[in-house]
Amino acid sequence: MTDSKPLNVLFLCTHNSARSILAEATLNHISKGKFKAYSAGSSPRENQTPNPMALHTLEKAGISIDGLSSKSWDIFALPDAPHMDLVITVCDNAAGEVCPFWPGQPATAHWGYADPSEVAGTEAVKLEAFMQTLIQIKRRLDLFTSIPLASLSKMALENTARELAKK
Questions:
Q1: How many domains does the chain have?
Q2: Is 167 a domain residue?
Q3: Which range of residues forms the domain containing residue 148?
């Protein structure tokens, strides 16, 4: 991989309203142009929009929400769609959630996060769940973005992303 063009990373979950949105915005915020992040869902609800608490959490953390939208992964199968170098699922299969599978040849990894939008309680409790999810995502992304792009062949990219799932 070269330093001349950013690596495209797609974050996938089911509805593309919380975890994948948090990951997309955070990677674009911290990557200094090394990566270009996108997000999508395998089955977003009709008229799905990003969870307002996800957007609030990002804004509170100083991360731009410009251009964020919930969308189906189908748009990334179109002929003019950007080629993905890495696809990371962020759903929580430990909770029985079905994670989407991305066809094709990009490197893949799974970083499981509990769905903060499923947390019950007061608004403060729910916002704390979103903030904790953002902190977990950012911790992995900080480690990921510290790796020199030149050392990320497809196999190394996949191995590194999968290894970070353990952190």
A1: 1
A2: no
A3: 7-161
Model pTM score: 0.88
CATH number reported for the structural domain that contains residue 142 in this entry:
3.40.50.2300
- What tokens were used for 143? 């480690």
Q: Which long-range CB contacts under 8 A does 122-130 form with residues at least 24 apart?
A: 126/53, 127/53, 127/56, 127/57, 130/18, 130/22, 130/51, 130/53, 130/54, 130/56, 130/57
Tell which residue, 26, 19, 35, has the closest CA to residue 62: 26
How far, in Å, CA of 123 to CA of 159, rounded? 38
Q: Determine, yes or no, domain membership for 1.
A: no
Q: Name the strands in the sheet holding 7-13, side by side, starting at the edge strand that comes first in the sequence.
A: 35-41, 7-13, 86-89, 107-110
Per-residue pLDDT of the chain (167 residues; tens, 9 = 90+): 444 689 999 999 888 999 999 999 999 999 988 999 999 988 888 888 999 999 999 999 999 999 999 999 888 888 888 888 898 989 876 545 566 666 667 788 889 999 999 999 999 999 999 999 999 999 999 999 988 877 776 667 778 778 888 77
In-domain check, residue 52: yes
